[in-house]
Amino acid sequence: MVRINLLPHRQERRKEQRETFIALCVAAAALAVVLVMLWNHEVAAALDLQNQRNAYIDAETSKLDANIKAIDEMHKRKEDLLQRMKVIQELQGRRPVIVRIFDEMVRVIPNGLYLTSLERHQDNFHVQGIAENTNEVSSLMRNISASPWFKSPQLHNVVASSTKDNAGGVQPGADGSTQQRFDLSFSLQIPKQSATDGANPPTKSKGGATP
Q: 189: closest CA among 93, 97, 89?
């Protein structure tokens, strides 16, 4: 009977299987390394692309911020110009008002009453003057109330005065009779109709002249 020793054959086969397994492991490891490198490359490329996008967005945001700031400045300049234009238009529209004020002032001042000072602060007037008696002061206040250009007369003070002023000038009533120094304020009101069209101010009494 012939006997065959199969041990070397089995060892050779196991050796081949071991070498095949090692080769497969090395190939798998190499493939894994390649895949990791490819993944890292893709991730780095994606990060670079995202960084570029972020930088572009930041640059565009800075431009938009600068444009918004410029627009805000333009709006501010526009508001300033509109405000100036409004003031200029108001001044142009009210240029004839000062003429009407003095014309109306002459109309409301009754005979026997004289103004010694006239002050204006925007639409408010403050006057001081001399009257022969308190009735003239009351008449002045009634004329101011009835005027389409003036309103809200307020009498602050009325005192008896001598016939001569501080400068030595002789005032009405120089025959020795006492006069009335008064202090009065009132406000301006613009009639609805145009100043150039003219209003119908009271003409109950003639106006006096300022000294």
A: 97
Amino acid at 163: T
What are the φ and ψ backbone dihedral angles of 182, each rounded to 5 degrees? Answer: -125, 160
Question: What does each C-alpha distance from 30 to 25, 26, 34, 37 come to in angstroms?
Answer: 8, 6, 6, 10
Q: pLDDT tens across 165-201, in order?
A: 444 443 444 445 578 899 999 998 887 754 444 434 4
The DSSP result for 162-182, as a single string, is -SB-TTSPBPS-TTS--EEEE
Q: What's the CATH number for 97-188?
A: 3.30.1360.100
C-alpha angle with apex 127: 122 to 132, nearest 5 degrees? Answer: 160
Say which residues have a Cβ less than 8 Å from residue 97's Cβ, sequence separation at least 6: 188, 190, 195
Residue 47, both tokens: 């990060």
Residues 4 and 184: their CA atoms lie apart, in Å, by: 147
d(CA 179, CA 193): 39
Domain ranges in the chain are 97-188
